[in-house]
Structures are given as C-alpha cells and as structure tokens.
From TrEMBL:
Organism: Nocardioides malaquae
Pathway, per record: Pyrimidine metabolism; UMP biosynthesis via de novo pathway; UMP from orotate: step 2/2
Catalyzed chemical reaction(s): orotidine 5'-phosphate + H(+) = UMP + CO2
Protein name as annotated: Orotidine 5'-phosphate decarboxylase
Keyword hit for Lipid biosynthesis: no
Family: Belongs to the OMP decarboxylase family. Type 2 subfamily.
Residues annotated as domain Orotidine 5'-phosphate decarboxylase: 28-272
Catalytic EC class: lyase
Tree of life domain: Bacteria
UniProt-recorded Gene Ontology molecular function terms: orotidine-5'-phosphate decarboxylase activity
Matching PANTHER family: OROTIDINE 5'-PHOSPHATE DECARBOXYLASE
Gene this chain is encoded by: pyrF
InterPro entries linked: Aldolase_TIM, OMPdecase_type-2, OMPdeCOase_dom, RibuloseP-bd_barrel
Enzyme Commission number, as recorded: 4.1.1.23
Record Pfam families: OMPdecase
Length: 284
C-alpha cells in the first residue's frame, strides 16, 4: 500500500515516481537485453553459457549507465538452465547498480499461490531476481494478478500488463468483446486506470501496447507508464507512436532490443544515444 507521503510500506519510493524522475534525467528509452542465438553469432560468440555471459554483461555494462530501463527477456537466459539464470541475476544486479531500472520480461500469469510465487520471485527485494518491474499476462482474468499488484505496492515495484500486443495472433483475444460490449483490452486498461487513480506524478501500473498496433480503438491513458515494444528494428517509429497514443505519449517507454544490440559491442552506446534522441521527439 502506498502511504500519503508517497512511499510504500517497505519505505521504497513507488516505481512510477522513480521512473518519472529517471526519464526526465536520461530520456524514455528501454533496451531489451535479449541474447538470441543469432545475435550471439553476429557478435562472434558461441551459443553457450560463456557466450551468453560475454554478450549480456558487455551489453549491460555499456547500456545501464545510459538508458532509463533495461529489460532482459528471461527465456533467453533460462534456456541455459541454472547457469543462465545466474547470468540473469548478474544482469539485474549490475543494471540497478548503474542506475537503470529493470523490467523483467517474463509475461507471467497464473492464479493463487502460483501468482504469489511469481511475485515473490521478481517483485520482492529478498529475491536474487528482484526487479523494479515485471511484465505480466492478465488473460486468466485481471483479478488473477492481485498477488502481483499487492506485492508491487508493498515493495514499490511496478507491473506492465499485456493489453494490445503487436503480434497478429493477439487480436483474436485482445480485441474480442466481453458481455458488456467492451473489448478485452479495454477491460485491462480500465483495471490499470483504477489502480493508478489519484497517483502523482505517474502510477506504477501500466499496459504493454505495441508501437505498430494501429488504431487502439480505446483510451490508452491510464495515468501510468506504457511499455511500447516494436520500436526500432520491428518497424515502429516515433510517428507511429504519436498516432497510436496521442496525448498519452508523455507516458511512453519505447522499447528496442535488436535496434541497439545489432550495433555490436563497440557501437552499443552510440546506438542507444541515437535512439534516446529519436524518442525525445515524443516530448516536443
């Protein structure tokens, strides 16, 4: 629960407030550190734990002092088993030490004690995988995420909840109509808006909405941050984001991975700075 002073019951400043301040200082870019096998190969590395560690630590050491948010996709670490997860723990720790916020991209969603276990794994400071925020799937019903919401509130963490994703398969679920006539995506956005009510300067609970979804058909402003994958190598542009988000563009956290990582070890910082300058146009 957030106290009247703006801190949480753990004494940590809420995620939304921390993100708002960091974006003002560093810009609104999020970079995903996603060690695809093809990227390891492009960097001249083997697709093994040693290659993973070299890739991930080189990327986080270069990027974490520059960008506001680092977003590791856990699957690319988990595929190497416990040694890969150990690398992920180092990525998280180093990113946070360098001043970046971490969004753990896991897209978890379940019910009851299982959801609580996911919350404990990613949103509780006692965990070695503790991150500032996590991606979550609401498609077992938004209420199934309640343990994540309450754990995030307690510890000053945040949630990014899938709402309107850019993959074409998502439309059949996300734009389907509920009994009251709203789309599924609209119900998710309404739930997030309720979690952020009366929060200033920015709530800690936001949607994931792709940069290339076209007309969202619904108000996307939830008084919280909006994680926007699809920027950069996937084709999303600042112009696309202006069309999709309108006045809500002030809350965007555009995310890119390959658009920066494909620059290679020597080009990471320059690529990130170009992207930071590019998305700064959202504030114009």
């Amino acid at each position: 629960m957030t106290t009247t002073s703006g801190s949480t019951t753990s004494g940590r400043e809420p995620f939304g407030a921390r993100l708002h301040r960091l974006v003002a200082a560093r810009g609104r870019l999020c970079v995903g550190i996603d060690p695809h096998a093809s990227l390891l190969q492009a960097w001249g590395l083997d697709d093994d734990v040693a290659g993973l560690e070299r890739f991930a630590m080189t990327a986080v050491e270069a990027l974490a002092p520059e960008v506001s948010v680092i977003k590791p996709q856990s699957a690319f670490y988990e595929r190497f088993g416990s040694r890969g997860v150990a690398v992920l723990e180092r990525v998280v720790a180093h990113a946070r030490e360098a001043g970046a916020l971490v969004c753990m991209d896991v897209k978890r969603g379940d019910i009851g004690s299982t959801t609580q276990a996911y919350a404990d794994a990613y949103l509780d400071p006692a965990s070695p995988l503790f991150s500032d925020s996590v991606t979550a799937s609401p498609f077992l019903g938004f209420g199934s995420l309640s343990p994540m919401v309450e754990t995030a509130r307690k510890h000053g963490s945040g949630l990014f909840v899938l709402a309107l994703t850019s993959n074409p398969e998502g439309r059949e679920v996300q734009r389907a109509r509920t009994e009251d006539g709203r789309t599924v995506a609209a119900t998710i956005l309404d739930a997030l808006r309720a979690l952020n009510v009366d929060t200033d300067p920015l709530g800690s609970f936001g949607p994931v909405i792709g940069a290339t979804v076209g007309d969202p058909g619904v108000d996307v402003d939830v008084n919280g941050p909006i994680l926007v994958p699809g920027y950069g190598a996937q084709g999303g542009t600042v112009s696309d984001m202006r069309r999709v988000f309108g006045d809500a563009a002030r809350a965007l956290v555009p995310s890119t991975s390959r658009g920066v990582l494909e620059a290679g070890p020597a080009g990471l910082v320059d690529a990130a700075r170009r992207a930071i300058d590019d998305v700064a146009a959202l504030d114009a």
